[in-house]
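Quick one, T. Sequence first:
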Amino acid sequence: MTTATPSPADRGVETMHAWVQNTYGSPDVLSREATPVPTAGTGQFRVRVAAASVNARDWHIMRGEPRIARLLDRSVFRRKAPTAAIRGTDFAGTVDAVGSDVTGWRPGDRVFGEAVGTLAHYVVVAPETVARIPVGTTFEQAAAIPLAATTALTCLRAADPSPGERILINGGSGGVGTFAIQLATALGLLVTAVCSARNAALARSLGADVTLDYNSEDFCATAERYAVVLDLVGNRAVRALRALVDEGGTLVLSGGGVSGKGRFVGPIGLLIRAQLSSRMPGPRIVIPEAHPTQEMLQELATLISSGALRPVIDHAYRFDEAPDAIRHLETQHARAKVVVTVADQGDRS
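Structure tokens:
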């Protein structure tokens, strides 16, 4: 006779709800489960999550794709399931409990940032990866900021353009792209955004000077040249992208990959080819890696407070619809950010 494993609640452990996966696959593999409420350890504090946002990173990890990543990054991927069972990276919420050796933070502080497993009622974070939410910013707006905006800022810093120079952003209406347009505009750059015709008005409202519809024109076939080309999609050859860059300019590659395509190698193949091409004469190629820091998040918060930057939200889902939020991002070519409101954030089982 088989005895069922007692749940955390049955064992007298205080629990919360979280979206968990125990195998790779579509959003259908995610299940809402009761899991132990995490405890803030030394140098940490716990946040009651009010909202989270989803990123391409979430569906890549959810599906275990590209599959070569299961061999290359064992900190994130195991053979049959991710290392961390709870999905989500971005969050916004309220400090709930503070561990030892933490100063400057107290329960009730409104914060946003990055952590592991944010599609949950509570998450434990390190102060180094969070900042205070700007006054007047909603939890949903704050949750849209961390990964996407820090990626955009990291990419622009890596390119190091000068005011008045021209930049082309492939993927201008996506989560990172909408922040990149605004940040590039704030730097005084002349922005050309590649997006669909339905998103052209959004791109222009964020500061794009020119929009190119990828459905009706091949932006790589143009005679135009740019000081910076920022590729956020990964659907063009390195040679074609590099040909768009002025001599002395910079090609910046970040992320990319389309669900259902390139399942084995995906954008990793593009990045490998880019590293090989970077050894050849021609424009510089950089592949920056974004790491959230409190300093960077505070800088973004200041830009939001000044009105120079605003999070754009495509759709907000309820907590019980979290798999639909990832499905939307993965299959619907979502514009800007997709967020999840944790409506029952204070509930504990």
